[in-house]
Amino acid sequence: MQLLAYLPLVSLFTRATTGLQLLQYDIPTELFELFGNGNDSPPTVTSAASLSSAAPSARNGTASTASTASASGSASCYYPATFILNNFTTWLPANNASLSYVSFQYVDRGTLIATACAYNATSRSLTAGTGLANRYACDDNVISFIWQKGTITVIETTCPGQTVTKFEASGSIIPTGLKCAVTNSSGDSCQGQSQGKLCISSVPLSANFTSQEPSPLQD
């Protein structure tokens, strides 16, 4: 009977370690300690990782320590693994790049976050005055993004409010499958501008988070 009672725990441990191996970044100790605390609940901490199709990462072996044997803490925490950008749209005016426009719908199926994201000439950078790349908040402010040189970097706060240090997962993608058209009048252009180029992705854009670091914007 004791063996039969132990089998479900073995199954949970296997699922937890498998999920951790799929992440493409090392897990900081403070985040990893959200496992355990003597709680016997299922290891929800890694369920987002099971969505990743990436190869295992074991740069420092952080995710393979003995603490994976514990279940998650009292609060649910999902490590971001993958993200999707739907309806990715950009508009670049012919004469003034500072008036450009970017928008998309962000989805993380693991953390169950879906939010609209957009940047235009009136958007305020979260990193203004810091010397860091301009970063803009989405409607759900646990998500932000950087649009720079044709690459979009998405940042998602990890387990918000559950650690003293604010941690962020980030991943980048170069949009592909863009269908572009020239805009010539205020009637068919973004932001009321006249001449420019409007591009819309014809397919959802998906990528992996590849970094998990303390935020440079600690609360």
Could you write a compact summary of the structure shown?
This protein is mainly beta. It contains two helices and eleven strands, in the order ααβββββββββββ.
Q: Count of helical segments?
A: 2
Structural class: mainly beta
The biggest sheet, with number of strands, parallel, antiparallel or mixed sense and barrel status, is: 6 strands, antiparallel
Regarding quaternary structure, what we see is single chain
Strand content: 25-35%
- Unreliable segments of 5+ consecutive residues: 1-21, 37-74
- Radius of gyration of CA atoms, rounded to a whole number: 20 Å
Globular, elongated, flat, extended or rod-shaped: what is the shape?
Answer: globular
Span between termini: 50 Å
- The overall number of domains is 2
Report mean pLDDT, rounded to a whole number: 74
Count the E strands. 11
State the helicity in percent bands.
Answer: 10-25%
Please trace the helix and strand order, writing H or E for each element: HHEEEEEEEEEEE
Structure write-up:
This is Ig-like domain-containing protein. It is built from two helices and eleven strands. By secondary structure, the protein is mostly beta strands. The chain folds into two domains: 2-69, no CATH class; 82-214. The strands form two sheets. Strands 1, 2, 3, 8, 9 and 10 form a six-stranded antiparallel beta sheet that branches. Strands 4-5-6-7-11 form a five-stranded antiparallel beta sheet, with no helix packed on it. Strand 4 and strand 5 form a beta hairpin. Residues 1-21 and 37-74 have low confidence and may be disordered.
